[in-house]
Amino acid sequence: MPTKPRSGIRANDLMTGARLADLELPDFGMPAAMPVIPDLVYEDRMERFRKLSAERGLDRIIVYADREHSANLSYLTGFDPRFEEALLVVGPDEVPAILVGNECWGMADAAPLTMRRHLFQDFSLPSQPRDRSLSLAEILGEEGIGAGSRVGVVGWKVFDDTGVIDLPAFIVDELRRLTGSDGTVENATDILVGAADGLRVINEVEQLAYYEWAACHTSSGVRRVLEGLHPGLTEQEAVRLLEWNGTPLSCHLMLTAGPRASLGLLSPGDRPMERADRFTVAFGIWGALNCRAGFVAEGPEDLPGEIGDYVDRLVAPYFEAVAEWYGALHIGQKGGALQEIIDRRLGDPFFGIFLNPGHQIHLDEWVNSPVGPGSDIELASGMALQVDIIPATGTEYFTSNIEDGIALADESLRATLADRYPDVWQRITARREFMRSSLGIDLHPDVLPFSNIPAYLPPFLLRPDRVMTMTG
Asked: Does the predicted model carry a pTM greater than 0.90?
């Protein structure tokens, strides 16, 4: 059983390593404009995608998207469907073809990658007109899919069995019928999202600059929430402090306080916050997500007596584990080594760690993860990672969370980023120095923090100036 702090002794006096300290979070600045992915980048992505598909012996490759699962299509073409599904057909030479419904017809023509459009009205919403398009079989036949064809299918997930495909059955059934017994229809999603070398897990400098822009907005929003919390504020009022700018969300907005906060991924309600409430907030747009969690309190004296050692019991060992995890990041590091750090430090069932401690991020919040028990996957230059290590105690101690985004870049990529995006590089350099000098987290040169609240963890949210640090 956890022990309570001795009378008259503050929780941080009992710690070794991590401690609470009064720290001022600097203003790292905000980007003046959103970095744009040039058309030539999309063309290069498509050529590399074709090359890898051909090396696998595929005649055609299909990429499916809907509103929630649009990242693969967006990565390749710059187009993401609204309201409807969409299907991209890529052959070895010709301009790719996109199948869209009624409401995406015009939008698809605005994509930065040139595509031939097919109106396929079965992708349209229920009861909309369906009288002007060919059947799916006719369109796919026109695109060269027939008996004996080898077709790769990109959905959202990778499965051990490549025959398992996470697309609507009417599409997969038609593909299998068209290709027949002499053909092949197989899951090829790993070409884009394979944890070691998928096209989407190794990012260009332009994409990294965009991620930093996104992280500036999400992390600054979370900072405004942390600095604006007070008893009596409703969850709906608190979420407005995020100042969402309209960029597509990578996940739904999450902000809850009180008993509901322990239930996970819930959206804000009208309940006013109370002192000693549990609290969690997560804000993610394409390319970034930030999360913090703790108590609506000024210190341990505001908490029930049985969890007065909240910092000692949970937050300090958690912060120490994350600090070591950060320090172990570098190009060539194996995912299994990162897993071992968390297992060693937070393996006690009390902490309830059960998801991968760290994963790759892109336009979608979770692409894949190189981190897992015994993983030999090596971290590579261009990877963008989410520091997503979440205790789920299931007890009155609730949780703590310090979720931010980083990227890995070798010397050449760092030089290119600094040269082409000097304001981005200036913010990254300032964050690294803050983490080193104020938080005691010394990063390898490969590690680029993107968050404007980098590793900034105030456990008592009514005192956002009292944060965890490893400095003496």
From this structure: yes
